[in-house]
Amino acid sequence: MNILELTDNRGNIMYNVAIMGATGAVGQVMLELLAERGFPIGELRLLASARSAGKEVEFEGETHTIGELREDSFANIDLVLASAGGSISRKFAPCAIDAGAVVVDNTSAFRMDPSVPLVVPEINPQDLATHAGIIANPNCSTIIMDVVVWPLYRRSRVERIVVSTYQAISGAGARAMEELESQTREVLEGKGARPREMPHQIAFNLFSHNTQIGAEGYCEEEMKMVCETRKMFHDDDIRITPTCVRVPVMRAHSEAVNLEFEEVVDESEAREILAAAPGVEIVDDVEANHFPMPIEASGKDAVLVGRIRNDISRADGRGIDLFISGDQLRKGAALNAIQIAEELVER
Ligand code: A2P
Question: Which atom of ligand 1 is nearest to the CA of 23?
Fold first, then answer.
């Protein structure tokens, strides 16, 4: 990092931080988390499109003005947290690196580039050592699944994952979140739905994930779960078949996950492993029928896991089923990016 000789009044090193996409759904949570976690910020530079330039944002009692993202926006910046879309990252990340900054990129632009580490700190922090200016933050559904699967994988290699997602609207951005709210109201008022950000009515409905379906019949979101998991686990042979679905939920993704292990893994052992896993919280109250729910995962750092059970469709004891809920804007995006930044600072 382009560490400046900037320190606070206790001599701690401070970092100049820019947020690309500061007005977006993820950008706003990044701001919230930087304050909440006390990230050592010297200068904070908030960048968005020309549409937002001049808008004012409060951060820790100070007013910051949004600046228009430009190629020369990064002078004296140490760290860029990027969440303004893939094409914007492709265009501006090189400018930030040329200016001496490290970029933690939330978009899919560089994730599968072999020279770019793709990191979840609970899974593969060691991969950070090889970065050359950009670290990619994985896809939200991938992070939320893998933070739970990885500790089990370490006990016994997972040969195959069958996963169905129930994805919140926050993954499609702030305007899509507004659409869910206003559309719900319009439908209740009998006005009918007029989808704008989403391809279909989302209020009182659900639909297959709105990314392009490829040659093999899987959409881009599904293939991200396959390819990114393989990259982070350093396991090109793990077999994964996802089905990704958008549901009318504001900001936490849920996932039903079936795991097939190489060895026998008992339900009670899985429970023990998950109870000790970082970034994971068990919510599995069978008596009260209380399991992970997006409404309870929202605003939380931990990914909730429950419905932990042996797969009764197999006689060999090598299957476990789980139900997961995790905040898409926190662990699925902003929190993971800031944890990466914290790791970089520690190193
Ligand atoms: P703006 O609010 O000015 O459009 P979300 O994922 O919630 O849709 O947010 C996307 C973020 O990316 C917003 O902060 C948005 O800024 C920003 N953004 C979108 N297009 C551009 C662009 N061409 N240049 C800079 N920032 C952009």
Answer: 14
